[in-house]
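Dissemination and training. As part of the outreach component of the grant, students in the summer workshop were shown how a complex can be specified as a set of sequence lines and then modelled as a single object. The example used during the hands-on session is reproduced here so that future cohorts can follow it. Participants entered these lines:
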Amino acid sequence: MKNQKGLLIVISGPSAVGKGTICKELFKKNIENLELSISVTTRNPRHGEIDGVNYYFVDKNRFQEMIDNGELLEYALVYDNYYGTPKKYVIDKINEGKDVILEIDIQGAKQVKENYDDGIFVFIMPPSFKELKNRILKRGTEAQKDIDIRMKCAFDEIQHAKYYNYIVVNDDLDKAVENIYCIIKAERCKLSRYNLDLFEFKEEL
Amino acid sequence: MKNQKGLLIVISGPSAVGKGTICKELFKKNIENLELSISVTTRNPRHGEIDGVNYYFVDKNRFQEMIDNGELLEYALVYDNYYGTPKKYVIDKINEGKDVILEIDIQGAKQVKENYDDGIFVFIMPPSFKELKNRILKRGTEAQKDIDIRMKCAFDEIQHAKYYNYIVVNDDLDKAVENIYCIIKAERCKLSRYNLDLFEFKEEL
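and obtained this result:
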């Protein structure tokens, strides 16, 4: 009775909100049929990173080709290195009936929405701006000026929340992870996920 | 940041599908801010039943008055006794920010949808018709003819599934309860549940 197609679940939010940690915890739950998308990048593999597991490592020519051919759901240039989400990998998984999680920044999520409106977009919200600032401060050794820029940027990013389907406040990590788990479970119960072919019932009458 | 208004969650499905058992198990989880609606009825209280706890007990004149005044979200006549859902009770709870569960039959759910389209409608589906028949057989001592009528009726009821938001297959009780729990949690994270007043963030900048 279930449709075969999987879901595309986009987890995004301002930088330092904790989306990486949330996704890591989520995958510890070993949810059946759920996969994390693998990004493609032009940066060099770090020690221990495996091609096709942590990332797909490609050179800049190949990446440019992927952009030109529309092979990416989204991409970005970060400090001279490209990062992107290969469309084929994601669509293949979805067609296999797997649900795929993309953990990406706001700009990436915006691109995905343009390319795949059928996705489920989850915005991770900081409990407050003050708390987001604390998390940014904790992360690094940035100068006051850079912190101000990041905070201004985060404020702009939060404006995008209104384009998402769900908002999960990252106040308590366990609760945030549970909410995302529940969103996935609930989305799997949506009417549109079922092929209500009642003939299979009729035969049993 | 949260909206104050609660959710109306309608749990319905064909008779004998197990919606009563699911709701009983759901309430054992003591979900914060969740209440089961109390029905109004013209039948006499059974031993131990308390007015305003198990039911609101009223006489037929008062019930007729409630119908005439549009005081009911839905009602039905079952073997000479009326049962209904008092609108005021439900709306008051929702306005207090409580989420309210209605566990009702298909006809009742149809009436609620006409009166309160903003509800979340969950259809409990039997894993198969064969299994539903087993459950009906287990319940009572009905004659073969009555069982045939009930099965035909259940088949008609299942046609209504397409008007619901979610479908939960009652294959495994724990899984069905978890799915409904997740639907409630996920619905609470829906964008529409938030009042994205970013000024409260701006003040912190």
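Chain B has eight helices and nine strands. Students were then asked to discuss how this feature might be tested experimentally.
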